[in-house]
């Protein structure tokens, strides 16, 4: 049992001022695996005060000191590798291979990339007639969701530290333990007192408290659009800046000359990895009408490569994070059938033999029209839609006919067509074929997928204010 009943404020683990607690459930076993304290407004105020007190010195640390700190964090993170993998598998239900190759790896890369990006980062620029300086934004409030317990919080903290911004963080109640390990890492490597504060608690108390706190200068949030809107409203009361990383309904465009099996494998992998609980997952697969039959066959062929089952075993798809998420996914599968889409594979209910745990069947709908609810709303589960198109122009139009714009994917051979589709998709990140991940590349969305960019130097910019000085001495 992991019982973490303290918050981390001003460089110390401290008792909560309230006595409310919340059990954390392993979604694969439905059993309680630990408990956290639900913080109060008083806990939050103390954390914000600690961050404010740390601001004058933390914001003035040198670039070299921050690089060293980020490198030390990355090294200590590596030392805790096995524990991080085990923790994420338990709290999120993600299979061990995904916990290692996706979750653990992303956290590590954000800290080491921030150190790397900082090396070439300029905080002062002589632009001839004027000088531009980049100052820490002040105190940052970070609110993160449950689907990537190390990725989102790590990219935010790494960028904030790189910019010299002290932090107050609130992870999701459903998966709070990875953030506690991170906090232990910061404590161990000697992150300055008050530069990092962790207050566990509910979104309605601590999350809302962060977004409306008069002493928090900048709020970075990842999660649902509905909460993103509330955060913006709260922050607008004091004209505080926000960065929002919200949902997506990303297209994967299969071109006529694509390798059908490769594209089908990619399409299934998008809803299989992390059980489809991924904001940037492709969940609308656009296939040329002429390829519909062969693509459907390829989907059925590759599906067994993604077994569903116990995350402690050799499976690719674990359970969904919670009963609530399972219910949401079920209702979307029902909705798709009511709307007239055809179930190619999967459907409602649990996969055979998996009665315990929040397991859902990987589900692929075909004969989907882009106007259907299942093609427009973020399902956040192992469900995808096959939509046919006849011309490249139509594929682009369908790709963009959605309120989101987080990501897009294109599969094919002809470079002119790949470039045309990639540059026409209205989204913050487009991936062509199997292009490699790059942690220096900015991440964020167009339209209702959010505001701002994370990762690498663009991520650091979010935590900085720009100051112009006219007549600055030539030192
Ligand atoms: P959200 O409610 O948006 O939760 C995300 C974070 O915001 C959590 O830490 C949550 O705290 C906190 N929060 C909740 N209410 C808040 C408020 N009023 N003010 C400030 N913070 C608040 O997401 P969810 O309910 O867990 O999931 C719902 C749907 O959102 C999913 O089905 C999915 O479609 C989408 N979602 C998207 C993403 C990404 S990466 N874009 C991630 C997760 C979910 P607590 O949960 O601890 O109360």
What's the helix and strand layout?
Layout: E1 2-4, E2 6-9, E3 12-15, E4 21-26, E5 31-37, H1 41-58, H2 63-79, H3 81-92, H4 96-119, E6 124-126, E7 131-136, E8 140-143, H5 151-163, E9 167-170, H6 177-189, E10 196-198, H7 203-212, E11 218-222, H8 225-236, E12 241-245, E13 250-254, H9 260-272, E14 282-288, H10 292-302, H11 323-338, E15 342-345, E16 363-366, H12 373-376, E17 383-389, H13 392-400, E18 404-405, E19 407-411, H14 415-424, E20 429-432, E21 446-447, E22 450-451, H15 456-461, E23 464-469
Parallel strand pairs: 1-5, 8-9, 8-11, 9-10, 11-12, 13-14, 13-19, 14-17, 16-17, 19-20
Antiparallel strand pairs: 2-3, 4-5, 6-7, 7-23, 12-22, 15-16, 18-21
Task: Characterize the biggest β-sheet.
Answer: 7 strands, mixed
Strand order of the largest sheet: 15-16-17-14-13-19-20
- Indicate the proportion of strand residues: 15-25%
Which hetero ligands occur in this complex?
A: 7-thionicotinamide-adenine-dinucleotide phosphate
**Coarse morphology:** globular
Supply Rg.
23 Å
> What would the average pLDDT be, to the nearest integer?
98
The overall strand count is 23
Gap between N and C termini: 58 Å
Helix content: 25-40%
Distinct helical segment count: 15
* Uncertain stretches: none
Secondary structural class: alpha/beta
């Amino acid at each position: 049992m992991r019982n973490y009943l303290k918050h981390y404020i001003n460089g110390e683990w401290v008792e909560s001022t309230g006595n409310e607690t919340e059990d954390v459930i392993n979604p694969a076993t439905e059993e309680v695996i630990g408990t956290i304290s639900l913080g109060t407004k008083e806990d939050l105020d103390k954390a914000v005060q600690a961050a404010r007190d740390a601001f004058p010195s933390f914001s003035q640390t040198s670039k070299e000191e921050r690089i060293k700190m980020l490198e030390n964090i990355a090294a200590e993170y590596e030392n805790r590798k096995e524990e991080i993998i085990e923790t994420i598998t338990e709290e999120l239900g993600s299979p061990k291979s995904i916990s290692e190759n996706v979750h653990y790896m992303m956290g590590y890369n954000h800290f080491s990339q921030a150190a790397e990006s900082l090396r070439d980062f300029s905080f002062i620029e002589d632009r001839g007639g004027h000088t531009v300086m980049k100052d820490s934004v002040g105190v940052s409030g970070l609110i993160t969701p449950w689907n990537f317990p190390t990725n989102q919080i790590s990219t935010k903290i790494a960028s904030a530290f790189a910019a010299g911004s002290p932090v107050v963080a609130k992870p999701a109640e459903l998966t709070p333990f990875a953030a506690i390990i991170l906090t232990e890492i910061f404590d161990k490597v000697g992150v300055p007192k008050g530069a990092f504060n962790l207050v566990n608690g509910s979104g309605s108390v601590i999350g809302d408290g962060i977004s409306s706190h008069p002493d928090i200068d900048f709020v970075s949030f990842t999660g649902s659009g509905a909460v993103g809107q509330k955060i913006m409203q709260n922050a607008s009361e004091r004209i505080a800046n926000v960065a929002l990383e919200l949902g997506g309904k990303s297209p994967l465009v299969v071109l006529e000359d694509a390798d059908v099996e490769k594209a089908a494998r990619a399409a299934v992998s998008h809803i299989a990895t992390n059980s489809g609980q991924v904001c940037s997952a492709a969940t609308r697969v656009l296939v040329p009408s002429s390829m519909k039959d062969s693509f459907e066959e390829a989907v059925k062929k590759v599906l067994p490569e993604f077994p569903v089952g116990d995350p402690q075993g050799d499976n690719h798809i674990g359970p969904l994070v919670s009963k609530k998420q399972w219910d949401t996914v079920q209702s979307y599968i029902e909705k798709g059938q009511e709307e007239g889409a055809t179930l190619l594979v999967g459907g409602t209910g649990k996969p055979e033999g998996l009665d315990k745990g929040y397991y859902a069947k990987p589900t692929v709908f075909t004969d989907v029209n882009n106007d259907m609810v299942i093609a427009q709303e973020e399902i956040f589960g192992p469900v995808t839609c096959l939509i046919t198109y006849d011309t490249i122009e139509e594929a682009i139009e369908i790709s963009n006919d959605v309120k989101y714009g987080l990501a897009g994917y294109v599969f094919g051979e002809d470079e002119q067509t790949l470039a045309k589709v990639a540059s026409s998709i209205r989204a913050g990140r487009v991936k062509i074929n199997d292009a490699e991940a790059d942690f220096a590349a900015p991440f964020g969305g167009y339209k209702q997928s959010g505001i701002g960019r994370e990762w690498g130097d663009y991520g650091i910019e979010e935590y900085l204010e720009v100051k112009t000085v006219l007549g600055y001495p030539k030192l």
